[in-house]
Specification:
The protein is α+β, with helices and mostly antiparallel strands. Among the domains are: 44 residues; 50 residues, Orthogonal Bundle (Arc Repressor Mutant, subunit A), CATH 1.10.10; 47 residues, no CATH class. Helices cover 61% and strands 10% of the residues. Helix 1 packs across helix 2, helix 8 crosses helix 10 and helix 9 packs across helix 10.
Length: 213
């Protein structure tokens, strides 16, 4: 068998149609064609064509991953999940993620640090909620804990200060009894992942037992 034509596709100039013995056989990305050094007249066999298809599938998965990363940073596990949802097999997904890691496009530690820094600056919440969100996004426990600790140090803040800032967004209702207000503020801060001792301290500062400040 022999490659007899390599025309660019009409509706997608970044892809090339591969004709073998005068008949269309497959479409490949121009990048794969160039990397493989394909030329008209080259001999091919079924094994060679299957390898080219595999390379093109990997290229498509990589492009899908890059589009996802263009929207926002993502963890490696999150990208694998999304690629699997798009129909790519585990071997292809893992291969693509491995390549993107090698060139620094995926870095779970950097991803975790960015997410925690964003939350600390814009949406104060406790370490427990931060750790939970990172786990949901596929960041391992050790990496998540390091990101939270390092970000807290870098931002010169701690749980209590973050809880205070979060409580600033909370408001007492008119004619609300003090104990009911304290219970509501407790729930508000608990939902944001602050621990019991931190919550108690902030409530006592904001809503002392002898009345509102």
């Amino acid at each position: 068998m022999k490659i007899t034509a390599l025309p660019p596709q009409k509706h997608d100039p970044d892809r090339v149609s591969i004709f073998v013995d005068g008949a269309f056989r497959m479409g490949l990305s121009a990048e794969v064609v160039l990397a493989a050094g394909l030329r008209v007249g080259d001999p091919v066999d079924d094994a060679r064509l299957a390898d080219l298809e595999r390379r093109d599938l990997s290229w498509q998965a990589r492009e899908a991953a890059l589009r996802l990363l263009a929207v926002r940073p993502r963890s490696a596990a999150e990208l694998v999940r999304r690629l699997r949802m798009k129909g790519y097999g585990p071997e292809v997904a893992d291969e693509v993620i491995g390549r993107l890691r090698e060139i620094g496009m995926i870095d779970d530690a950097a991803f975790a640090g960015t997410l925690v820094r964003d939350r600390v600056r814009l949406r104060p919440q406790g370490s427990r909620r931060l750790a939970s969100e990172l786990r949901q996004k596929g960041v391992d426990e050790e990496t998540a804990a390091a990101a939270i600790r390092e970000t807290m140090e870098g931002e010169a803040t701690d749980e209590r200060e973050l809880a205070r800032r979060a409580a600033e967004k909370w408001r007492v209702r008119s004619d609300e009894e003090p104990e009911r207000a304290r219970r509501r503020l407790n729930g508000f801060l608990a939902r944001r992942g602050f621990d019991g001792e931190t919550i108690r301290q902030v409530i006592d500062e904001r809503l002392p037992h002898d009345g509102f400040e």
